[in-house]
Amino acid sequence: MKKYAYNEITLMQYIFLINGAQVATGVLALPRILAEKAGTDGWIAIPIGWFFSVVASIFLVKTAERYPDDTLFEILIRLFGKIVGKVAIIVYMVYFAFYAWIIFVNGSLYIKAWFLPKTPSYIILLLFSIPTFFVARNGIRVLGRYSELSFYMVIWIPLFFLIPLRDGTWLHLLPILKEGWKPVLSAVPTTVFSFLGFEVAFFLYPFLQKKQHAVLGITIANTLTMLFYVFVTIVCFVYFSPDGIIDFNQPVLYLLKLIEFRFLERFDMVILAVYLIVVSTAWMPCVYLATFCSSQLLGKQDHSQHVIILLLIIIGLVFWREPTWNESEKFQQMFVKGGLQLAFVAPPFLWIYSWIYEKLRRRVRH
Amino acid sequence: MKRKILLCLSLLAMMMTGCVDQINVEDVTLSLILGLDLDEDDHLVVYMSSPVFNKEAKVKEEKVEVKAVTIRDSRELFDMTVMALTSGSKTQLILVGKKLLKRKNWIDYIDPFFRDPKNTVTTRVVAIDGPVSDVIFFRPKDKPRLPLYLTNLVETDYRRNITVKTTIQEFRKQTMEKGMTASITEMKKDHKIMLTGTALLDEQSRYKLSIKPHENKLLRILQHKTKGDFPFTISVPLESNGRDKYWISFSTPNVKVKTKVRYDGHFIFDTDVKMRIAITERLFPFNVRKDTAKLQKSIETKLQADFERLIKKTQTATIDPFGYGIYARAYTYPEWKKVQNQWGKAFSKADLNVKVHVTIGGMGTIK
Prior knowledge:
The structure holds 2 protein chains of 2 kinds.
Chain A: H1 11-22, H2 26-38, H3 45-66, H4 72-114, H5 121-136, H6 140-154, H7 157-165, H8 182-194, H9 201-204, H10 214-239, H11 251-257, H12 267-297, H13 304-321, H14 325-365
Helix pairs in contact in A: 1-6, 1-10, 1-12, 2-8, 2-10, 3-8, 3-10, 3-14, 4-5, 4-12, 4-14, 5-12, 5-13, 6-12, 7-10, 11-12, 12-13
Chain B: H1 2-20, E1 28-30, E2 33-38, E3 44-51, E4 61-67, H2 71-79, E5 85-87, E6 93-97, H3 98-101, H4 111-115, E7 124-129, H5 132-136, H6 146-159, H7 168-176, E8 183-189, E9 193-201, E10 207-211, H8 213-222, E11 232-235, E12 247-263, E13 267-282, H9 292-316, H10 324-331, H11 333-339, H12 343-349, E14 351-362
Helix pairs in contact in B: 9-12, 10-11
């Protein structure tokens, strides 16, 4: 009997949920960070980061495959017992709640800086949290539908990046590997982090209809993210001069600022408003998963109250603290350190651990 | 029920955000032109021209001059006199006086255009030969208001490559780029406003020299920016030492440019310019059908000489408005790395060979 039969998701929903969780506000600054570290060779680091994240993703799916009907919550309790398992789940819960908080804060900072400078952050967050509540209080299926629908709704955005390319200089990319591999490798950690978010697959796996395609699905999701990152980064490198790009905090938004039609100026505003949909597909699964963990911990079936509580905590914190840009960057660095453990170290570790665990268990049975 | 309340609440919240900071168009003074110049004592002077949205006002344009420390500081001084609150979000042109252009670090002044996300970055940068006040307080009777007139002037002249169109974003790109120096539109006011061509700046973005519309076309071609029209009118040397001027005009529907670079003690650039031309005017008798090759050759010689003169000019001024440095970086990176911070110097020592190939595509509708 399937435990989550009423809440199954299709392969497409699975792909877009993972992809949505990966792509958030980070990409807006990514070209600058890469250019700081490796100049115009920075884009090479993205496929390398992609490789690592795919390896970690495959470990993750292979671990989940051993217990096809369990979410991470049950896997951890099965492997480590009640106490250690619950502690591990709390770690995940805090991690997702923190992830959601960071994206919320970042999103509101962007909105504030670019078009609502006088509106207080907590009001922006209040507006964010209304649709979030409606989506996140439901199950994975609704989240999956939301992610898929938003993907189709925003798929035209990359087309607009082609407009500045007219004035670009492809020569900026040459010579490839101008300083050798060293600076490129130094940029790899940054790109590895920009793929964070695929760890939601731990929780999605039991809901997936066709489990045989799980590896394929997560690889496609990672690849979509990679292609988008590479595309945006190369467009930025081609448009901006290699000496000039490091001066812009968010080169991607600057790029859009240049697009001007006869009937419409300041296209960046329009894109940023629409881009919020993309950002929302990152925070919604996080809000859901954080509250999913907490409600499981308390043994409750319905998690919608937890969603309200989490959103209120986030709004309250923002009201109280009013995070600045610098603080937001500090939060991100903290988050990235945690993400490295939970997304890149945990899957291989769990895979090996469960392998040993199963061997021992079988031996005990014999 | 719960749903309905939430829906009403969210609708209310959405509407309310618009009420908090609404701005009526009468309450904004849109600085469509911003002028920067130095006065006799080398103090910064900022000019502004903005439209007035009022029925009672006789003149629909406000023009103000203030002495300020920075551009942002000038906004406060503008606000003290103009109708409403000054906003830079729609600035079309930024006029920079030549006196300021010659000063070191003048480029620091335009920082707010990039830092404040409210400001636009598609503002066109224009150099003014002479005092900016002459241009900004000029009220031509046969033209629309000044911002519209000047913007249109730059836009349309750019289409025929009489000048360059450098938006402030493009300008920043050109000044930050080590392998290139900036070039901006140049204007002058005698008894009326004239667009005189293009001003070339050096690595510190200081004014270096001016070029005429004819040279600007050559500049654009060497920049590999071959969009728009390139109508030429030149006198070709048909006889080796003839005194007669043989005037010919042609349009160039198709220009292809290729640049190669190598390093041999100094940088050597080979640029191939392939043009397909259509003759639009010819003031001397000539059998184009029979002597195509001769005419092509003479046009090539003339253009090549013009290219060489322009290049010599820039090399003497140690500036590289063409962006040859970008080629040097792309193809000869190790050598480029050594000279990247003094590219102008290295460029002035470089060898530039321009080869022009002309194909006469059409002689027009009469013989």
